[in-house]
Amino acid sequence: MNTLSRTQLAAIELVLRKFRQQLGDVQMALVATADGFDVASDGDVSDNLQRRLAAIVSSLHALGSAAGTEIGAGNCDVVTVQFEHRLLHMLSIRTRRGDFILAALVGESVLLGNTLWSLKQCTTQLGVALSP
Amino acid sequence: MSDAIDLKIVIAGAMGVGKTTAIAAVSEKPPVSTEVRNNDTVAHDKAFTTVAMDYGELRSPDGNRLRLYGVPGQARFSFMWPMIERGALGVMLLADDSREHAFDELRPFLTAFAHSIGAGRAVLGVGHLASGDSRAVDRYVTALAGLGISMPVFTVDIRRRDDVLLLIDALFTQVEIASEDASP
Question: Which partner from A27, B108, B136, B141 sits 20 to 30 angstroms from A75, CA to CA?
Fold first, then answer.
């Protein structure tokens, strides 16, 4: 399942750590495969939660994609779920290795524009780190 | 206002048993799919796998709309199963007999959908039988009985529309019987 090298995993974790540090108020950031396996995470997330979140994030993102297909809106790039005090953003990362998802749980103190811009930067860096 | 009603049927079973195929075989509209590329080639060598649900619909002969919901088969997506089961008329379980541990792979679904099964609102379709295997139904009925479960079991080719419709018909019959039994 996880054919990434240790070096690649370290690079991915570094990208996630820097993303959280730069944006602030990010409870956790997670990379999962599109079919629901956890790859790496940073932040307040146990191994068990990381595994469960990877599957849930995969389902949520796939439902967003299905909605996009039904309404003819093209590929699904971002799915956002708003909770009472936090936002869960899920972004597509398409690589030659396969499709991945970046998920980030962000506090309400961070401006949405800043969040989305930082997430886009992060997916670009992760795309490089995840390439074969 | 039409008198037609919407009925929800859940299709459940392990990864690769043919849930997506079954819905595609009978849906009168292009099914909604949440398939992505499968990375878990150890569990199953299929290229794509459902990660949220499948959805299709068809009209019954009496004009009711049947909404078919396929659940994702992998255990990591089990959080979806009770959500999808909510409000369902019944459950159509599928098994792939070519799998080495076909019945064991069915067990999590027997537990997860125990409410529908216990209420008599479930059927089992067994596919991918070895040619000449005439005892398959008996084997599954016996194995289910060993768990205290009784439900109709059919051998099916899930790619065939008629076979899927047979399971749907059987499920409706089960529901009718269960309703009559529940009547005072």
Answer: A27
Cα B53–Cα B34–Cα B19 angle in degrees, nearest 5: 50
A87 burial (CB, 10 Å; 0-12 / 13-18 / 19+) is middle
What's the burial of B63, exposed, middle or buried (CB within 10 Å: 0-12/13-18/19+)? exposed
In this prediction the ipTM stands at 0.86
Residues of A in contact with B53 (CB under 8 A): 63
Residue A106 C-alpha, separation from nearest chain B C-alpha, in angstroms = 23
The span from the CA of B84 to the CA of B71, in Å, is 7
| Rounded Cα gap, residues B184 and B176, in angstroms | 14
- Using a CB-CB distance cutoff of 8 angstroms, which residues of chain B are in contact with residue A63? 34, 52-53
DSSP secondary structure, B159-172, as one string? TSHHHHHHHHHHHH
CB contact under 8 A, B52 and A60: yes
Q: What pTM, to 2 d.p., does this model score?
A: 0.90
Structure tokens belonging to residue B178: 């269960």
pLDDT at B20 over 60: yes
d(CA A62, CA A69) in angstroms, rounded, equals 10
